[in-house]
Structure formats: structure tokens, C-alpha cells
Design goal:
With 470 residues, this protein is α/β, with parallel strands linked by helices. The protein has 15 helices and 14 strands. The protein binds nicotinamide-adenine-dinucleotide. It comes from Petrimonas mucosa.
Length: 470
């Protein structure tokens, strides 16, 4: 008996040693390998688009597809961006196109060419010779086909989030961008939020030490919005799909601060969800609909481990009554940043020089820095992008200004022939949570490998940085 016990301990110790070693190395050593999905080979002669630069455009001529709640706001913002021309507008519904024309008229701009009335009218917009950029804000299932078609017509393309929903779409979008060498950007606005961008700047300047983990989320009860989406597209998608189907607001800021595909890469993820309750109950109460096989979990959690041993934790919950949150928490060896539920920083005393902020003596690693210190830090580390356009962004608005900053940067980079802030591999990495978390959930939360969407180039660029003309 005693001998058996000793043998079990030795076996357990050996197992533990192999697991510990495996997890520390991040190689997944041991017999439990992540589920892999196919990675199509890069076609011969096709080149990656890391750091892609396109010829400078004095005036960026834009066509908009999808003029619902979000698209209309984009048209309005573009009336404030110098060096742009709104050439064409498209929506299924003529009255929505007309409402956007009114925005142009109000801004003293000429009416744009109008496309509506058919599911395919947007293709005519993409074919126009006088457009440089196609800007897409339709429902989720149209984004990838529209991006692909626009690039095939020789246009740069940008799409609202999420820009692609399946792995097949993601690889098609990447291959089209690489084949055409056109810019393809996902319109992720949250990376331009004032707190997120300031924190990114602090992290890039080493104030937080080595960044070890980041959290992000989309926690937003959508009961006030469900009835507003054209053709009920958002509810339909949630009914049919399990997994984190709206991950990009959390993923974007987390991946930028962790230099994903600029020196690190995500290796694998695991996901877990709680059963769906509130949305099926809403459907019964509001619409008298009995949905017994509602797929999207009440709350979905995803954990990701990177090649360099960092972690990301992402949450999705559009069902539960609780305050809006994108979480955005960043942990480094010298400090911590949190946007939700409380916005603030905690730092070790040696993270900032004595005369850099007021009341330096109040800085400790185990509580939030006082409000005046936080203000001092945010002023000192204000990002150059915000220094340049904060005032206009706050005036024009759109989620407190970050929407305007996003559009402004897209146009600025196109005008100056610079790489865009977000490339097609960011699009792929931030969108892949939808299909990969579904795969994990369908397999009892098994680890699922995150493909290297750059196909071998994730370590070519050393650190994420925004490009500037001078
Ligand atoms: N980044 C953000 O903060 C943010 C905020 C809200 C919405 N969004 C995203 O914006 C997108 C649009 O959301 P929304 O709230 O405006 O939805 P919406 O339903 O109000 O608008 C979608 C529009 O697309 C149009 N459309 C659909 N199919 C079309 C086609 N074939 N041709 C032309 N037009 C077509 C519809 O008629 C509708 O007007 C979604 O991807 C959503 O996730 C992002």
C-alpha cells in the first residue's frame, strides 16, 4: 500500500513537472495539444502586407455602404475631415441614403451619387473609377464579401466591426489584401479612446514595466437596441452562434499593448460560457417567441496565451443587466492600468521619477494613485495623436471623440502614404475569436490554436507604433 502511494506521488510529481515546464515554455508540451485549424499556404508570388504603403492621396474619395445607425454617423464625421470627398452613398433603403444626403447638404457639401433598392447595388458603387476608399457599415455577414469585392475593384477597404465572422472569410480577406496589395482596415474605434491610447503610450515608454497580461470586454446589455437593427440581423446571429461573436473592442487595445504580430503572437485560447437565459426570456416577453436552442451564452470568457508567455482575458455579455464595460485592464511588472470599473493607475514608486508628477510620495503598488497624480500622468503621457486632434475630436464626437480619431487617422495615413494603424492581420486576429471560441466551447473548453495569420512574419516588426508623416 505504502509502495503504491509513493509511486503515485512520483507519478504526480513527474506529471506536474512536465505540465509546469510545458506551460512555462508556452509550447503546450505533453500529450494535450490544442485543436488546430487549417492554415492555407500563401500562394506563390503573393507578398505579405506588413507595413504596406500605398501612393499618397491628396484627396481621399470615399463611398459608403450601409447607412443605418452607425453608417450615418460615419458620414457625418467625414464632413469634418479635411481632404476627403464623399462621392457615393449606398443602402438597401432609399430613405436611408436620403437621410445621409441631408447630412451632406447641411454641411454645405454636394449631394453624392446614390445607390439603393437592391441587395447588389453596392457592387456598382465599388466599380466606380472615382473612389479610393470603400467604407462599410452593414450587418456582420456582409462585411467580408464587401471588403473582398472592393479590393478586387482596386479600392482600399474599411469595415465596421467585426469585419469577418468565419475562418474562411478571414483567410479570404487576407489573401485578397495580399494579392491586390490594397489596404484593408477594420474600423475598431476603441483603440483610440483617450484612456486606452494614453495607457498605450505609457506602456510603450516603459512606465508599466514589462506588460504581462491584458483584459478586454464587450459587456453591454442590448435590450434597448435589439429592435433597432435592420432585419433583426444582430439577434439572428446571437440566436445561431455560440462563442465571443463581438470580441474586437476588447481585443484591439489588448493586442496593441502586447505587440501582437509585432514581436509576439497568440498561441492558443480556451473559452467557457454560462447558459443563455436573459435573451431567450426577453424574446418570450417582448415578442412571444419561444426559443429553446438559443446559442450565444449569457456570458462568454476567453483566455489566450501568447508565444512570449503573456495572457489575454476577454469577456462578452450583451444579455446581463450590469454597467457597460470594455474592461481594459493592463498589468505590467511596474504598474497597472484600469479603465473599468474604475479608471485609474497603480504604480510602483520607482515607475515614475520624483518630479514627473505631483504628490509622488503617495504612489504605492497596492492602491490607485490619487486623482491629481492620475491627471498628471495622463497629461504627461498624452499620445501625440491626441495632442494633435483632441479638441476637434471631442467637438465632433462619436463615442466621446474616439470615432473621429479613428476616421481621421485612416485618412491621414492614406493622404501621407503611410502604413495604416490597423492592418489586415489585426483584423484577422481580433475577429478570429468568433470561430475559435465556438470550437473551444463545442469541445468542452478545449484549447484551440490561434493561427499565425501573417504566415511566418509575426516577428518581423519589433513593437507596435503609429506612423507619422514627419
Ligand atoms: N464600433 C462601434 O462602436 C460600433 C457601434 C455600433 C455598431 N457597430 C457596427 O456597425 C455595423 C452596423 O451596425 P448598425 O447598428 O448601424 O446596424 P443597422 O442595422 O442600423 O445598419 C445596417 C445597415 O446596413 C444596410 N445594409 C444591409 N445589407 C445591405 C446591402 N446589401 N447593401 C447596402 N446596405 C445594406 C441596412 O439597410 C442598414 O441600414 C455593425 O457591424 C455593428 O457591429 C460598431
Amino acid at each position: 500500500m505504502k509502495k503504491l502511494f509513493t509511486l503515485s506521488i512520483i507519478a504526480a510529481a513527474l506529471l506536474f513537472a512536465s505540465c509546469t515546464n510545458g506551460s512555462q515554455q508556452g509550447k503546450g508540451a505533453g500529450s494535450y495539444q490544442p485543436i488546430e485549424t487549417p492554415v492555407p499556404a500563401r500562394p506563390a508570388g503573393q507578398k505579405h502586407v506588413l507595413g504596406l504603403r500605398a501612393p499618397k492621396l491628396d484627396t481621399v474619395r470615399v463611398g459608403f455602404i450601409g447607412l443605418g445607425m452607425r453608417g450615418r454617423g460615419a458620414v457625418e464625421r467625414f464632413t469634418h475631415i479635411p481632404g476627403t470627398k464623399i462621392v457615393a452613398l449606398c443602402d438597401l433603403h432609399a430613405d436611408r441614403v436620403e437621410r445621409s444626403q441631408e447630412i451632406l447638404e447641411k454641411a454645405g457639401l454636394p449631394r453624392a451619387a446614390a445607390y439603393s433598392g437592391s441587395e447588389e447595388a453596392w457592387k456598382e458603387l465599388c466599380k466606380r473609377e472615382d473612389i479610393d476608399l470603400v467604407y462599410i457599415a452593414t450587418d456582420w455577414v456582409h462585411h467580408a464579401p464587401m471588403l473582398i469585392y472592393a479590393m478586387e475593384q482596386g479600392k482600399h477597404a474599411a469595415s465596421e466591426v467585426p469585419a469577418a465572422m468565419t475562418l474562411e472569410e478571414i483567410w479570404d480577406v487576407i489573401n485578397t489584401a495580399e494579392r491586390t496589395q490594397k489596404h484593408c482596415m477594420q474600423l475598431e474605434n476603441c483603440v483610440y479612446d483617450f484612456f486606452e491610447l494614453t495607457t498605450l503610450n505609457m506602456a510603450q515608454q516603459g512606465v508599466l514595466g514589462e506588460i504581462l497580461y491584458a483584459e478586454g470586454a464587450y459587456i453591454h446589455m442590448l435590450e434597448d437596441f435589439w429592435e433597432e437593427y435592420e432585419g433583426d440581423w444582430r439577434m439572428e446571429y446571437n440566436k445561431k452562434h455560440r462563442g465571443d461573436i463581438y470580441a474586437t473592442h476588447g481585443m484591439g487595445p489588448a493586442c496593441q499593448v502586447l505587440d501582437i504580430h509585432r514581436g509576439d503572437k497568440m498561441n492558443y485560447l480556451v473559452a467557457m460560457d454560462s447558459k443563455p437565459v436573459s435573451i431567450p426570456a426577453y424574446l418570450k416577453a417582448k415578442r412571444g417567441e419561444e426559443v429553446t436552442d438559443f446559442q450565444n451564452g449569457q456570458h462568454t470568457m476567453t483566455m489566450i496565451r501568447t508565444e512570449k508567455g503573456k495572457t489575454i482575458h476577454i469577456q462578452h455579455d450583451v444579455a446581463s443587466p450590469r454597467p457597460y464595460s470594455r474592461m481594459y485592464q493592463v498589468q505590467g511588472t511596474k504598474g497597472f492600468a484600469s479603465k473599468y470599473p474604475r479608471e485609474g493607475y497603480a504604480l510602483k514608486a520607482d515607475a515614475v521619477e520624483k518630479d514627473a508628477v505631483p504628490n509622488h510620495e503617495k504612489i504605492t503598488g497596492h492602491s490607485y494613485v490619487p486623482e491629481e497624480v492620475k491627471r498628471g500622468l495622463m497629461e504627461k503621457y498624452k499620445h501625440p495623436i491626441h495632442i494633435e486632434i483632441e479638441e476637434t475630436a471631442k467637438k465632433v464626437g462619436g463615442h466621446g471623440g474616439m470615432d473621429y480619431v479613428m476616421d481621421y487617422r485612416l485618412i491621414y495615413c492614406l493622404q501621407n502614404g503611410l502604413p495604416l494603424d490597423m492592418d489586415v492581420y489585426d483584423l484577422a486576429e481580433w475577429c478570429c475569436l468568433a470561430p475559435l471560441t465556438a470550437l473551444s466551447l463545442e469541445n468542452n473548453s478545449a484549447p484551440v490554436a490561434v493561427p499565425d495569420f501573417t504566415r511566418g512574419h509575426w516577428n518581423d516588426v519589433k513593437g507596435f507604433r503609429h506612423a507619422f508623416a514627419n
